[in-house]
Specification:
Keywords: Membrane, Transmembrane, Transmembrane helix. By secondary structure, the chain is mainly α. It has one domain. Helices cover 74% and strands 0% of the residues. The chain has nine helices and no strands. Helix 2 runs antiparallel to helix 4 and helix 4 packs antiparallel against helix 7. It is globular.
Length: 260
């Protein structure tokens, strides 16, 4: 008799658990935004939009919970869930989370901008993520920093759908890389774990370059670049990069030993 698939339940449970963490993050970011707004109001400076503020924090957040996803494995296996169902459920929940964050962030940000603009209290800064990346010299350290805080960006006021899609792609890759690194250290030794860190950074840099090419954004000088790839092929490159991470994570979790 074929065993019933548990991955939909795993996906639902993990999505709900991670959503509670996410709402806490968004709440904290909203409080920070309010405090920052009060401070800037007194000094007469421009304010970043809530959408842009969370854009930076969300990447780091998804990377961290990607690492923590590794520790759900033991819990589910202990409760009779197969490694395959755990993997599929975690992957589905991460996709849902990757779209939920930019959608909720955009709704809150749009409301705040509408309210504050009508009250004529603030003017809002234009995002400079794409241009700021051009001012950083190519170096391994600067490339790592750029990878975490200056991902390719589309202003929602110009194309809200594309903005959400790019946002979701960015943070989904952060999650996958965190998950890959977490499983690398969980299943293997430190050397292999450090190898996954290197693989993750390389793929993230490649992802940024491919996404910039696809969006026809300026590409900064970096140690690794894909500026020679035609824009028409960059989407395929993005898909391949994501599949490499997904396949590696499946391989690492497939036979991972679990202490029960």
């Amino acid at each position: 008799m074929k065993q019933k698939a548990n991955y939909p339940k795993v996906a639902s449970d993990m999505f709900m658990a991670l959503s509670s963490w996410t709402f806490a993050l968004l709440g904290v970011m909203l409080i920070v935004q309010i405090i920052k707004g009060i401070s800037l109001y007194m000094n007469g400076n421009e304010l970043d939009t809530y959408y842009n503020a969370v854009f930076v924090a969300a990447g780091i957040y998804m990377f961290v919970i990607g690492i923590l996803t590794t520790f759900f494995l033991a819990y589910y296996v202990e409760n009779g869930v197969t490694r395959k169902d755990y993997y599929k459920g975690a992957l589905l929940s991460s996709i849902g989370l990757s779209f939920m964050i930019p959608i909720i962030t955009l709704v809150i940000s749009s409301f705040l901008q509408f309210l504050l603009t009508r009250m004529d209290i603030f003017t809002f800064k234009a995002a400079e993520f794409n241009t700021s990346a051009l001012d950083v010299e190519a170096h391994i350290v600067s490339d790592i920093v750029l990878t975490f805080i200056l991902s390719p960006y589309v202003d929602p006021s110009s194309n809200w759908f594309l903005s959400i899609l790019v946002y979701a792609i960015n943070i989904f890759f952060y999650y996958l890389i965190g998950w890959l690194i977490g499983t690398g250290f969980y299943r293997f030794n430190t050397i292999i774990g450090l190898g996954t860190v290197f693989i993750g950074l390389v793929i993230m840099i490649i992802k940024d370059s491919l996404l910039r090419t696809s969006l026809e954004l300026p590409i900064p000088d970096r140690i690794i670049t894909t500026d020679f790839i035609p824009a028409s092929m960059s989407e395929i490159g993005l898909i391949v990069s994501g599949l490499v991470l997904i396949i590696l994570i499946r391989y690492f979790t497939k036979n991972a030993s679990v202490k029960i």
